[in-house]
C-alpha cells in the first residue's frame, strides 16, 4: 500500500520515506518473531531481490489485516 495509506492508519511521524508498508490483506503480516526478516520480490528471470527488512506491525496483532512496516533497504545501500 502507499505510505499515505499506511500513515493514515499509524498516524504522523511513524511512516517515512524509509518505510515500505504491506497491506496485511488476507491476514498476512509481520508477526513478533518475524522482525528482521526479508521483504522480497521475484524478478522476471526467477531471482529474488530483497527490498525491505521487517520492522513493525499493528499492536492489535499480526493476522488482523492491518498494515505492516518494513525498512526500505534502498535508502541504506551506501551504508550497507
Automatic annotation (TrEMBL):
Signal peptide feature range: none
InterPro entries xref list: CLIP_Serine_Protease, Peptidase_S1_PA, Peptidase_S1_PA_chymotrypsin, Trypsin_dom
Molecular-function GO terms, alphabetical: serine-type endopeptidase activity
Cross-referenced Pfam families: Trypsin
Domain Peptidase S1: 1-80
Gene Ontology process terms (BP): proteolysis
Name of the protein in its database record: Peptidase S1 domain-containing protein
